[in-house]
Amino acid sequence: MKKVIYVALATFTIACTSNNNNSSTNPTDSTANEQATLKAEFFGDSITLDSAITLEELKVLMADKKELAVKVTAPINAVCKKKGCWMELIAGDSSTLRVTFKDYGFFVPKDASGKTATILGIAKVEETSIADLKEYAKDDGKSKADIEAIKEPKRELVFEASGVILQ
Amino acid sequence: MQFKTLFTLSAICCLVLAIACTNQTATDKTIAKDSTGIEIPPPEVRGLDTAESCAKPTKYPNQDKPMALMMRQMADHAQKMKDLVLANKPITEQAFPFIRFHLVEPTDPDVLQPQFFENARLLQQSHQAMVKAPLAKQKEMYTAYINQCINCHQIYCSGPLKRIRKLTLDFKE
Questions:
Q1: What ipTM score was computed for the predicted complex, to two decimals?
Q2: Distance, in angstroms, between B148 CA and closest chain A CA?
Q3: Are residues B95 and B84 in contact, defined by beta-carbon separation less than 8 angstroms?
Q4: Which of B36, B52, B95, B102 has its CA 20 to 30 A from that of A13?
C-alpha cells in the first residue's frame, strides 16, 4: 500500500517538475531567438541569411570567372563616411571586397563598420578608374597625400549588392 | 480492498498527469518572464515587430542632405521622362520643373566650386531646351540633358554614374 502511495507521489512530482521546466525554458528560448533576429537590419531587396558563402570561398569561385550571382557573408571593414553608399568587406587573409548598391538605390548606415554583412548580388572582376579610387579614398576619410598617391586604375573583384542584411 | 485502493490511486495519478499536461500546453502558448518575473506577452500581442515584420528593408538609413534628396527626385523624374520619350510623348515643364539642387546643402561641401555652379547652369539650360523642344527634337534634347548629368558626376560624385547611364536612351543591360 505504501509503495503505491510513493509511486503516486513520485508521478505527481515528476509531472509538476516537467511542467515547471517547460514553462521556464521554451518561451525564454523563443524570445531569445526572436531578439537575435530582430537585431538584424535589412537594406535594399528582401533577402535571407541562408546559403551564404564566405569571402574566401567567393575568391576561389571567381578565379576563372568574370561575373557571378552569389550570396556572401563577411565582416565590414569600412563604410562610406559621407553617405553609406559603399562598404568594404574583409576576409580572414585581410584582403577586401568593395560593395556598391544596385542602381545607387539604397545605402547602409555610416556606422556599420565592424558588423557582419550578408549580401546578395553580382560579383565582378572589373577595372576601377583612378577617379573612382580617389573618390572612395576621400569618402573613407583618407589624407590628401594618400588620395594624390593614387596614380593607376585597379583591376579588382567588386560586388554590386541588391540586398543586404547587417548583424 | 487492496485492489480498490490501487485502482483509486491509479485514477488519481492519471488525473494529475492529465492536469499537468493541460497546464503545460497552456504555458507553451503564453508567456516568457523578464528578470523581475513579470510576464512578457508574445511580440504580436505587444504590437512589436516580429522576425517577419522586421524583415522590411530600409533604403536610406542615414540622414541625407537636401541636395542628395533632390538628386533622387531628379533621378525619378529622369526615369519618367525617358519612358515618355521612348513612348514618343511630350515632356512638359509643368510635370518636370527644373529642380534647383545647386542652391541647397550638399553632402560634401567641397563640391561648391565655380565649376559646379557652371555645370548646374548648363544643366538648367539643357532642361529648358528639352521641355521647350518640339516632340520631334525631344529625344535629342533628352540625351543632351542626361549627358550633362554624366559630365558633372564624372567630376564631382561618380557613385551614381552607373544609374545615370541606365537613363540614356540607348542603354542595354
A1: 0.73
A2: 18
A3: no
A4: B36
